[in-house]
Amino acid sequence: MAQAGIASRRASEEIIAAGRVTLNGKVVTEQGTKADPAVDEVCVDGKRLVQAEKLRYFLLNKPIGYVTTVSDPEGRATVMELMKNCAERVYPVGRLDYNSEGLLLMTNDGDLAQSLMKAGNHVPKTYQVKISGQPDARAIAKLSAGVTIELEDGRKVKTSPAKIRLIKDATNPWYEVILIEGRNRQIRRMFQSVGFLVEKIKRVQFGPLQLDVAPGEFRSLTVREVAQLKGLASGPR
Predict the structure, then answer these.
(1) Which position among 40, 45, 72, 97 bears the catalytic label?
(2) Half-sphere exposure for 89 (CA within 13 Å, toward CB)
(3) What is the rounded (10 degree) CA torsion for 90, 95, 99, 102?
(4) Which parts of the chain are beta strand (E)?
(5) Phi and psi for 20 in degrees, rounded to 5?
(6) Contact 209, 105 (CB under 8 A)
(7) How do the residues of the chain divide into helix, strand and coil, expressed in percent and rounded to 5?
(8) Catalytic residue flag (residue 169)
(9) Which of 25, 66, 86, 108 maximizes the CB count within 10 A of its CB?
(10) Which of 231, 95, 122, 105 is CA-nearest to residue 180?
(11) β-strand pairing of 101-107 with 197-206
């Protein structure tokens, strides 16, 4: 009863003692009576007890070629197909576009997901980005300070300051990009605004979470990681 959110453990004992609980239609007053919520019908004041859903948190490595949605009208593969072996139904937090890969948080904790998605929480997200061509120092400085990009609905917005550093010098170099926001296709739009196309994007970190599983694989978050995410979601105290 306490796990289902009916009352505290002590208050639940008082409710049982008062004869307000039935198990498969029979009043139960004995403390500690065993019942399986998946099989037995437990009612409090005539209302069936619905077991609270167990909250689950996973880190998924999304491969290229999957959309970050529950379903896709175009029939493309979604990240939900990668979570088939998960007992609980979980949902993606934020998005990575079809041609991007890397770390994606999956959970059924709606409150946490909503809090993490609010721009005001400024959750840092780290990407490895391959660029077609070689931006000069002026272009990188402009991107770091914030640029104006056009969104899919036609609105123009200025991006927040970003941290950008070269991690592999080449004809088509790789950069590490750290954002504190996550607009749709933001990195691609940012580099396009200074005249360069993005070839590859891989998210390697989301807040305290670091990508450490193979493409298409997922793992449960640790208790510490969940606590760190909730701390980020709650914002500065």
Answers:
(1) 97
(2) 1
(3) -70
(4) 21-23, 26-27, 42-44, 47-48, 57-62, 91-93, 101-107, 125-132, 148-150, 156-158, 163-168, 174-179, 197-206, 209-210, 218-220
(5) -90, 0
(6) yes
(7) 25, 30, 50
(8) no
(9) 66
(10) 122
(11) parallel
- The token duo for 40 is 């037995």
Beta bridge partners of 22: 27, 43
Q: φ and ψ at 116, to 5 degrees? A: -65, -25
